[in-house]
Design a protein that fits this description.
By secondary structure, the chain is an alpha+beta fold. It contains 4 helices and 6 strands. It has a 6-stranded antiparallel β-sheet with strand order 2-5-4-3-1-6. 14% of the residues are buried. The model has no long low-confidence stretch (mean pLDDT 82).
Length: 135
């Protein structure tokens, strides 16, 4: 399993919204509710317009991660967006692996892992695979 998180704290609200709207058609979204009980039932799924209006720079729940061979997720990119007016609700945009390099370059994303910036995606995957069991 490999996960590489990328820093996107430098992106503005406009850039985050543009990222969501530009790449939404290439992937799928899912949701996470932090608090669900009889007093706080999940809110109804939001429209894409509502999601976009709730995306804000500086939200601590915003994140960008590349995942490979993760037990609970498909290989690819997952971008988390915390929503301003729905604090216990997050939206995740999932994209195929093929968009990783494009997104890194377009949004000047820097890996939070050490020594990753000097590697190509292929070199990183080879390095990560050395620790994986072949079973």
């Amino acid at each position: 399993m490999a996960e590489v998180f990328y820093d996107m704290t430098h992106l503005t609200t406009a850039e985050l919204r543009e990222l969501f709207t530009s790449y939404r058609k290439f992937g799928w979204i899912d949701y996470e509710y932090e608090i669900t009980d009889e007093n706080n039932p999940p809110i109804q799924a939001l429209s894409e317009a509502e999601i976009i209006l709730n995306i804000q720079a500086g939200n601590e729940k915003n994140y960008f991660v590349f995942m490979l061979k993760h037990e609970d997720e498909e290989d690819g990119v997952m971008i988390g967006f915390g929503l301003t007016y729905h604090e216990d609700f997050s939206v995740y945009l999932h994209l195929p692996t093929e968009y990783l390099k494009e997104l890194i370059e377009k949004y000047a994303l820097k890996s939070k892992a050490t020594n990753v910036e000097e590697m190509t995606i292929e070199q990183f995957l080879i390095e990560q695979s050395k620790d994986m069991s072949m079973n």
